[in-house]
């Protein structure tokens, strides 16, 4: 067995060496070397060297004489090898966690842990597995150990495989998702933008391409999936689309967007029917406190938990105030919810939701239901809303659909 077999040892074994500094080269050459601070009456180098020699004997079965030169060599071998181990192993564990990509850099599925992180570690961007040998380039909350809450996806409806797939910032300033089997799957609209400098993940959760002046050339906030983060705007050109099902990231049947009349709507789009289910369609929008006279078509949630829209759709989360991490998500069941998370538990809880009843899109699809059936459904919606208010303590906005 080689003497170097003893190098991979628990840290508590190495603590006994009690070294603060050592000139490795001199130690290997047998020269007695000061080991940092020590008491004048206690030759710590001799004690530490003897322990190192005993350790080498125990691990290797070889015999060593206890001369000062041999003791110094034993310590040199052990500490030099520890140095090599720490330099080679510890950086490797974080080698692929970066805050930015420069032109020509990439993130690969094949490199485990190859991802971008925001400055304070709140968000991460990389590949997540969405099915058997299926991956999407995504942004997620990184504060929850082992649990990834996805807030954005580049290729939710066209996952890539592990075969030489990567996200690459090419020399032309375009972020390109490449699948080994299909070629280019997704890209940013920044082709031939010579001013693009790097890709960076901000602490807000916004993934941005920036130029030399730090200006945004492209940003993920401009193309949301099913979630709005604080400060992210819903505009005339953007839309939230729900997941298809719990755990299924493919685009679902529900959307949240501005319509041509400047009002923000919740819409169900199924294979046979499409219908607005919020706001109510049996009365004018102004009768429900909304307006269609503001053509800016902007809506956003701020870091206090307030959502405001140009059509006067407005609400506050129940934990109003700065501090928690929040997200506004259109869930796979078609309901709009605000989730909140804070330390030390880092668990999501619902702090606001728009309860449109338990009947969901089925009511929209069954416009021919009898009057008695509709009355029964309305009563059930009211009962469900009252029960949810009792259980959660939240103020519930309950709206009937028919």
Automatic annotation (TrEMBL):
Molecular function per GO: D-mannose binding
SMART domains, per the entry: B_lectin (SM00108)
BP GO annotations: response to other organism
UniProt cross-references to Pfam families, sorted A to Z: B_lectin (PF01453)
Membrane topology: Single-pass membrane protein
Keyword Metal-binding (UniProt): no
Superkingdom as given in the UniProt entry: Eukaryota
Record GO cellular component, one term: membrane
Sorted UniProt keywords: Hemagglutinin, Lectin, Mannose-binding, Membrane, Repeat, Signal, Transmembrane, Transmembrane helix
Bulb-type lectin domain boundaries: 101-222
Localization per Swiss-Prot or TrEMBL: Membrane
Protein name listed in UniProt: Bulb-type lectin domain-containing protein
Organism, as annotated: Spirodela intermedia (Intermediate duckweed)
């Amino acid at each position: 067995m080689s003497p170097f077999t003893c190098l991979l040892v628990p840290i508590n074994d190495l603590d006994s060496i009690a070294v603060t500094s050592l000139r490795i080269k001199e130690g290997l050459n047998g020269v007695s070397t000061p080991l940092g601070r020590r008491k004048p009456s206690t030759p710590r180098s001799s004690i530490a060297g003897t322990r190192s020699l005993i350790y080498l004997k125990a691990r290797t079965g070889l015999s060593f004489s206890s001369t000062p030169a041999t003791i110094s060599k034993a310590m040199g071998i052990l500490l030099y090898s520890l140095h090599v181990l720490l330099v080679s192993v510890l950086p490797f564990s974080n080698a692929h966690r970066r805050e930015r990509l420069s032109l020509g850099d990439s993130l690969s599925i094949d490199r485990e842990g190859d991802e971008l992180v925001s400055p304070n570690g709140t968000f991460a961007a990389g590949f997540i597995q969405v099915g058997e040998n299926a991956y999407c380039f995504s942004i997620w909350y990184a504060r929850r150990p082992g649990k990834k809450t996805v807030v954005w996806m580049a290729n939710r409806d066209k996952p890539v495989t592990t075969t030489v797939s990567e996200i690459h910032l090419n020399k032309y300033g375009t972020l390109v998702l490449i699948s080994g089997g299909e070629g280019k799957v997704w890209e940013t609209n920044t082709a031939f933008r010579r001013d693009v400098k790097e890709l960076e993940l901000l602490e807000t959760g916004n993934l941005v391409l920036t130029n030399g002046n730090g200006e945004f050339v492209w940003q993920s906030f401009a193309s949301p999936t099913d979630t709005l983060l604080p400060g992210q705007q819903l505009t005339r050109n953007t839309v939230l689309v729900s997941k298809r099902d719990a755990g299924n990231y493919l685009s679902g049947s529900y959307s949240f967007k501005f319509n041509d009349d400047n009002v923000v709507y919740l819409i169900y789009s199924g294979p046979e029917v499409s219908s607005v289910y919020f706001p109510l369609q049996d009365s004018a929008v102004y009768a429900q406190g909304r307006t269609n006279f503001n053509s800016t078509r902007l809506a956003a949630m701020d870091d206090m938990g307030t959502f405001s829209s140009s059509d006067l759709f407005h609400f506050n989360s129940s934990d109003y105030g700065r501090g928690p991490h929040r997200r506004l998500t259109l869930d796979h069941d078609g309901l709009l919810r605000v989730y909140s998370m804070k330390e030390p538990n880092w668990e999501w809880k619902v702090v606001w939701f728009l309860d449109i009843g338990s009947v969901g899109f089925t009511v929209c699809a069954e416009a021919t239901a009898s009057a008695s059936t509709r009355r029964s459904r309305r009563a059930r919606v009211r009962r469900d809303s009252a029960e949810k208010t009792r259980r959660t303590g939240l103020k519930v906005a309950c709206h009937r659909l028919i």
